[in-house]
Structures are given as C-alpha cells and as structure tokens.
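Why show two proteins at once? Because comparison is the fastest way to build intuition. When a single record is shown, students tend to memorize it. When two are placed side by side, the eye starts asking what differs. So, the first record is below.
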Amino acid sequence: MNNELKKLADYISTQMDNLVISTEVAHGELTIVARADKIVQFLTFLRDDLECQCQTLVDVCGVDYPERAKRFDVVYHLLSYTKNHRLRVKIETDAQTPVDSVVSVYNSANWFEREAWDMYGILFNNHPDLRRILTDYGFQGHPLRKDFPLTGFVEVRYSEEEERVVYEPVELRQDFRSFDFMSPWEGTDYKLPGDEKADAEEGAN
C-alpha cells in the first residue's frame, strides 16, 4: 500500500510541480502540502485526473498552531472510490488571509468551511453563505483556537422569569486554570477530603 501511495505522490508532484510543496507517506496515508493560493486548481486536478479520481471530499478541518506566523492548517480529506485510496491535503494561512472556497469543486465543502470559520475563524473567499453553523449567531470568538479561554466568555441559559434564552458573563466558583499537575501516586502536600479517616486508622493501630 505504501509503495502505491509513494508512486501516486510522485505522479502528483510531477503533474502539479508548481503547486505541491511537499509529500509524505506515513501510517498508510498520503499527505500533500500544497500552495494555499492554488487550492481550487489543485483539488480540481485531484478530482478530475484519471490517476487520482478523488470524487469525494470527506471533510475540511482546521488545526491551530498559534506560535507560527501562519497559525492555521486547513486540511482536506479526499476519497477515491475508484482507486480505493485516501489523500490528505494541507495548506497554511493566518487569521487575516482568506483561503479560496472549494465549494465550486466539492459541494460538501459548504458546511465544512462554515464549521472551520465558526470554530477557528478561518476565512474563505467566495463562499456562498459563510456564517456560523455550530455556535449561536451572536457568539464571540472561535472555540477551537488554542488561545480561546477554557470557560468561554458568556454562558447561555433559559430564563424562566423572562421566558427566553439569556446571555450572561461567565462566573466561576473555582479557577479552572490553576493546576498543580502532581500525580496522586507520587504523593501530594495537601489533604484531600477523607484523608483524615486514614490518618485516624493509622493512629489507632
């Protein structure tokens, strides 16, 4: 399987040399890093070429690397029923630079790109309806970014008094961000509820 994928990677690199940045075969999968500004042309080739025939776009998702200048990877998962292989295509972008929508190549990209926008804030040029899909329309921020707070900014609840959904600032009784990362098997410097019982039993013995 790996040999077939390597041959496919070499073929794609030869045919699309100016669009392919790198290829890698690992764990039985082919990953291609492509030029972001040519993603529509590249995916059209993978769909229509007789050696590739990637008829189906399975998913479009984002990955956040906040330490990079281009912090986001946009990842396209493609499937060929005819050739029985899967391809992963990656491109890089930042929070300000839009990526061309591939809805014109794969209709299924519509909701996938909306999800990437909603969760990561990745912008897509020429998308027919780029709006939130998983969070509320008034939601602030993008929840899957690494710098998004664990608790969010607001909480949503139904108010019996007002008979509607209300938004309120998050108020926590404890700080979710204070962890000591100490393993309980290595021992701790503090007492947990119930420890006093064990101490009393040891004293009695």
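Second record. Ask yourself what differs from the first in the token line.
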Amino acid sequence: MNLIVAVDNHWAIGNKGDLLVRIPNDHKFFREETTGKVVVLGRKTLETFPQGMPLKNRTNIILSSDPDYKVKGAVIAHSIEGLLKELERYESGDVYIIGGESVYRQMLPYCDVAHVTKIDHKYEADSYFPNLDQMDEWKITADSEEQTYFDIAYQFVKYERRTK
C-alpha cells in the first residue's frame, strides 16, 4: 500500500482542519498518482473536500467509527480491521492512504511506499505525519529536483520500507 502526503520541515500536514498550503504541482501529482485507484481517508479529511464529496474517478473508502455514518459514492469502514478486510478486494499497489493524521498513523505499519511532498517551510500546524527520516525501516528511493511555487521550495520524495 501507498501513502501520499505533503509535509513541511517539521512533518506538519495541516492546521485547523485545512492544508498548510496549496501548491498546484502537488495537487497535479496527487491526481496523477491516485486517479483510477483506491483512496483511504478519514471522515474529517473528507469534510475538507469540495461539498464534502468523495474524489471523482477513484474508489473512496472512508474510515469512521460512527456506525451510522454514510456517504454517497463511498465505502465506509468502521474499524482498521474492517478497513483491512475491505482492502483485500484491491491490488495493494493501487491503494493510497491520503489522510488525515490519525488514518496515516494507523495505516503506516501496513504501507510499503510513501510519496512525500517536502515543503521547505515551517507552518503553524496542529496535525503531523510521522517523521520517516527518523525511522530506520524507511529509506529514500527517489527524489525530484527542488521546485518552487512563488517563494515556496519543495520536492517530491519517494520512501520505501526496507525489506528485512
């Protein structure tokens, strides 16, 4: 399984229920990676999308502990166990964990690839992604040239879990 995330210098991912910054090339990369695939996200992340609707041209699986939670056009999983069972129906390489913080933390042990947009800035934040640079089991296997959007420098970095 894959994770896809944009982080700042301190591995922050959001503040007050929103992204830290919007970078068009990052959104383009996200679309290219996830279109036609399976995206896994939490209820709060879904609520940040336009009209709170699932992403088009993808299978959306929402993780919510609320047994009455329903979303048109999405599959709902009420536990990690239920989510993992649902994910057995799909090719592992086609599954992308897209947030938020709690879903990333719970699903990190099941993922082998992380697509991280590293933004060279420190933002005010209240949600974070685990720092893969401090985890021996993750290694960088690819990275892009540094790019800029106005005065924001960023790069795309691919991490893979080391095989034992």
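One difference worth noting in the second protein: The chain has a mean pLDDT of 96.
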